[in-house]
Structure formats: C-alpha cells, structure tokens
Amino acid sequence: MASRGRSSFTRRGGAESLASVPSSPFTRPGPHGTSLISSGFSDLDKILGGGIPVGSLVMVMEDIESPHHLLLTRYFMAQGLVHGQPLLFGCPLTSPESFLGTVPGLSKSKESPNESTNAKNQEGEALRIAWQYRKFINEQQSLEDRRLQQQKLIHNSLGTNHEYCNTFDIRKQLDRAFLMSETVECTSFQTEMTITRLQERCQQFCTKLSRSQQQIGRIALQSLCAPQGHYFRKDWELLNFLHFLRGMLRTSNAVAFISFPADLLKESFSIRWQHMADILLSVEPLLDDDKQMAKMLTDYSEIIGFIRILKLPCINTQVPTIPESSVHALKFARRTLSLERLNQAPIDATGGQSSGGSASSLVCSGPANASSPLEF
Amino acid sequence: MLDDVLGWGGTLPRNRVLLVKDTVAASASFLLLYLLKKILATPDSLVIFVGLKEPFSHYSRIARKQGCNLAMHQDHGSLVYIDLLSKTILEHSSLPTDAAVINEGNKLILLFQKFIRILKEQPGRNTWIIIDDISLIEVIAQGNNAHVRDFLHYCRTLATDQQICSLLLLTHLDAYEDIDETMMANHLELLSDTVINVVPLVTGQAVDVHGQVIVEHKVPCNVNPNTCMDGFQNSRGYGLHYKLMENTVQFFTPGKHV
Fold first, then answer.
1. Chain B residues with CB inside 8 Å of A326's CB?
2. Is B135 an 8 Å CB contact of chain A?
3. Interface contact B6, partner A, CB < 8 A
C-alpha cells in the first residue's frame, strides 16, 4: 500500500536491526520496529497494513443487529490456535468452552489438487487389478489415508505449518487436537466476579509467555461490557482495566482483541474506550431487502455486512495511516470470507451505531462531521 | 507558523496553562511532542512529562526521528519522565507507606507532591508540566471528579499564584458530551489560558492534510498579527491545517499547502 509509506529505499541500519531479532515464523517485521501477527483473515491483514502489531489493543465495536464481531473474534482465535500460540478467551457465556467449538477449521490446503491426481492415477492402476480384489484394496487405502491425515495433523500442531495467515472455512470445525492444548485458557464474565480477578488472569497469562521461544499470546475478550456479565455498568473499573491492559501489552509479547457493544455504554464512555484502542473497527449490518442498496451494488447477494475502519495502528510513529477507504464490504462467497472496498468512497455520520434508516446512506452520504449535509 | 499563532515566536511564555483537546479521528500527541521539543530546545528549561497513554520508548522513538534525544535530556536532568502506564502512582512515590495509606483516598495528591519535590529541587528554571492525558488521570482517580478537580486546581496555583511552572494538558474534546460530564470540560476550559483544539477536517481523512488546529487565546498574547491575518479566523480562534511527517510537522493556512 502506498499509504503505508513503503518505498524501494530501505535504510541499512533498519534492515540490520530487524535481521538481528530472531523472528518466529508466525510474525512479520512491521514498520517502526514493530512485529506483526496475523488476524487470521488475510484481507483484514492487508487493510491493517500487514497484520496486528504485537503489543497493541484491537477493539471492535459491536452492532446490535449483526453478529460479525463474533466472526472476526473466531478468525483471530483460530489463527492463534493453529499457530500454537497461547490463548486467553473471555466471554459473558457461562461456559466459554462452548464458543471454542465454533471456531472455524482450516480450509482445504493447496496440496489437495496433487492428491486428487494421485487418486486418479491409482484408479487407473486399479482398473488393471481383478475386480474381486478391489474391495480389499480400497479398505487398505482408506486405512492408510487415515494414518496420513493423523500424521499431517500432528505435524501441523507441532508448528511445521509455516504459513503466516491460514485460510479458514467457517462451515468446518477446528480440529479438537488444537483445542486440547494446555495453552488455551477460558474465563467467563459471569463466574469471574470482579474485574481485578480478570486483571490478574491477564497478568498471569502475559507473565507466563516465554521470551526465549518468542511466544506471542492472544487475549480475546468478547462483549466485555455486556449486561449478562458482571462488569456491566462498572464504567470506571472497566476503563481502569483497559488502561492496565494497554500498559501491560506494551511491555509483553501479547495482543488483545476486545469487542464491546458500544451502544450499551454511555456516549462519553464509548468515546473513552475508542481513545484507548490502537486499532478500532466497527461492524455494521446489511439491512434485508434494501432495494436502493441492491441497485447500487452489483454483488449485493454475497455481502453479509460492512466493516468500518476507524483507527489504524500508530505505534512508534506520529504519522497516521489513512486507509484507502473507510468502509469495506464483508462478503461470503465460495466458502471463504473476503473484504472488498466499496467503489463509491462512502463516508457516514453514524459511527458505530446501526443506521436506523436506509443502508444506502452508507454508500452515499455527506461528510463525516459536517455541520450540515451540504457542507464539504 | 504555529509559534506565531501561539505567541511563542520570540521567547517562551512563562506560567501559562495550555489545554490541548483532541478527538478519536485526530490525535494530538504529535502536538505535545512538537511543543516538548520546542521547550527542551530553550536553555534552562525543565520538563516534567507524565505519560499515561504510551510508553517512553514510543515518545523517544518519535522524538529521535525529529532530532531530539529524550534519553539524553533525561540524563542531563532537563526531562523528568513519570511513567504511569506500566506503574501506579504508589510505586512512584517514595513516601513512607503510612503516608501513602493516609492518602489512599486521593492518589493524585501523591503525584502532586512529586511535582512539588522536583520543583523545589530545581528552582528558577522555566519548568513545564506536561500531562498526557487528563482523561486517564480521571481513570486513575476512578472517576472521582472532585479529586481530579482538586489536583488540577493545585497544579494551576503552581502556575498562576506561585508562578513557578507552566502547564500543558491534553484532554479529549469528544469525551465530555454527556450532560453530567460537561462540568469537567468546563472546569478544564476555565483553568486554561490558551485552548488548542485538534480536529479532523470536516470532509474526513485525507493523505495531504491530516487535520486542523484551532488556537483560542483567553488572555492577551504577543501574537504575530500578520500570520493571523492569513489564517482563517472564526469565533473560536485562529485555525491552521497540519500535515504530519516522520521528521517534522507542517502547519499551513488552509489552501496554501504546496
């Protein structure tokens, strides 16, 4: 991206210092001495400028009408699990483990075409074999296949899978082997009574990360201030927790991914939360049967919602990154999710809240904070 | 350009209270560093920087790109950095624990006492206290507005009555929109001599103009009249557009950027 300010010129010193850091296969060197990890969603990584900087606080503003924040949380968690990174997950459900079961699994790897050609060859061979033996051979083959699959899975969990960002299939379930790991911790906002307890959990989690192995921890907290949890309406305590978390993340190898229902907070507190975030996104729904919208967008049927980029990371630099477009359409086609920039640069005044009126206001509307709709 | 509008062209003013307000879309931390650099460049200056938002490494990296070595200033004693992001106030105070326990009700008093101690050690210098930012001071006080107002009032008396330091405070413009929150915003406004608002352009984000600063003086300053004639001037004050770069900040009158 040109707006990231990357040019063909690289400073020698900078390159050396980056090379001296022993990099783990799941991180990438980012701008200004940061290292990036993947959000599990390659399109989102691209928009964020390569990935999420280690030590940053990602916040997603939830929408009452759309559950897409869960999708982003799932992808973030799935990528961490596949990479074997320690995970701390918290949500307002009484059994947060049940949410782990909905984490998407890896979609078919790129090797699959080879396998299919192999199978064809074998079929050809099989033709030559007398038909009585066919059943016996098939049985053996299926046994062998199963063994191979198991081996592959073990390899994956051992970390031989060196991909920075995997592709996930939301319709599949992540293999149990990944979830059984000792490094996965769960906490419920209903059973953890106080915020100080949650704070201690996070602190313990971060201190456990081993520096030598370049372990990067992922903290995912879903619907932190939801009314089901015990932290509802404890505004100042929650802000104190966020401030503590921000300070802790900056000194440890961890990333926190928090989603919160912004509409349930008081206006001024919602703004304070937004100020705390390094990366701020909001999800917005696509209203059903919006004919105006359908006319404007050619691939209306594939779009399931919108993601708005409100803040991009600005760590160790004062220059803000300006995204090419602030609203991206979240599409679901051919079993994979993708993000696409809307062609019309849409700017909307309703930040975060689901727009009460027509969703076409997303596509064409006045500038973000103009005093009158006609002003530029 | 901003110096002319601020009235900082010749010498730095003394015993002033500056309030910087920013928004989610346009952060004003660049302005703090810009002014910090200006203050450190003048001889016999002392800065007490209270960092609540970012770690020291973040500030020092940015300042280094602009040719200002914060670590060196720290060694020379012209910069005192108080890190409240990863440490608590209690960890900073060297008071005996009894005194700390007595003051448990208002931790901000400990921070104020630290200011006093530093100011007494080095009297007569052009001292600036920079706080990044006030909204996080409120978080530390657990939303107890009375404590925060006390603290701010004490700090202001250092500047206006005792005339031993100046204040540079950062706060958020948009965080006080609820009715019960407006009092804090009004209080801050009342304390300050000069208010600088940092807001995004009304047309949204752009690559070549990152936002605008609007400077409003409440007490007369030696503002350069020529530059102010160029800039747009509305009821709130003088406005300038700015563009951020790695090693500098460009301020320019709207429409004059080449």
1. 204-205
2. yes
3. no
A302 against A6, higher pLDDT = A302
Q: Which residue of chain A has the CA closest to B203?
A: A367
In tens, the pLDDT along B66-89 reads 999 999 999 999 999 999 988 877
Asked if the Cβ–Cβ distance from A368 to B136 is below 8 Å, we say no
CB–CB of A326/B204 below 8 Å? yes
CB nearest B202 (choices: A246, A267, A369) = A369
A296: left (phi over 0), alpha (psi -120 to 50) or beta: alpha
Q: Any chain A CB within 8 A of the CB of B181?
A: yes
Q: What is the pLDDT of residue A155?
A: 55
Q: Give the pLDDT score at B208.
A: 86
Count of alpha carbons within 13 angstroms of residue B219, beta-carbon side: 12
Set of chain A residues whose Cβ sits within 8 Å of the Cβ of B174: 271
CA-nearest residue to B61 within chain A is: A316
Mean local confidence (pLDDT), A308-314 = 90
Q: Provide ipTM, 2 decimals.
A: 0.89
Q: List pLDDT tens digits, range A14-49.
A: 433 333 344 567 888 888 888 999 998 889 999 998
CATH architecture label of B12-203 = 3-Layer(aba) Sandwich (3.40)
Residues of B in contact with A280 (CB under 8 A): 24
Coil/strand/helix, residue B117? helix
Taking 60 as the threshold, does the pLDDT of residue B234 lie above it? no
Average pLDDT, integer, range A104-130: 55
Where does the pLDDT of residue A249 fall: very low under 50, low under 70, confident under 90, or very high at 90 and above? very high
Q: Does residue B36 carry a pLDDT above 80?
A: yes
Query: Best of A252, A318, A376 to disrupt the B interface by mutation (most B CBs within 10 Å)?
Result: A318
Alpha-carbon distance A178 to nearest alpha carbon in chain B (angstroms): 33
Domain annotation for chain A: domains and CATH numbers:
24-105+167-341 (3.40.50.300)
* Domain boundaries along the sequence of chain B: 12-203
- A186 close to A180: Cβ distance less than 8 angstroms: no
CB distance from A17 to chain B under 8 Å? no
- pLDDT at residue A348 above 60? no
- Would you say A92 and A188 are in contact if contact means Cβ atoms under 8 Å apart? yes
The predicted-structure confidence for A275-294, as pLDDT tens digits, reads as follows 999 999 999 888 776 677 77
Which residue type does A92 have? P
Q: Which residue of B has its CA nearest to A203?
A: B86
C-alpha of A66 from chain center: 16
Q: Say which residue the tokens 């899978």 belong to.
A: A161
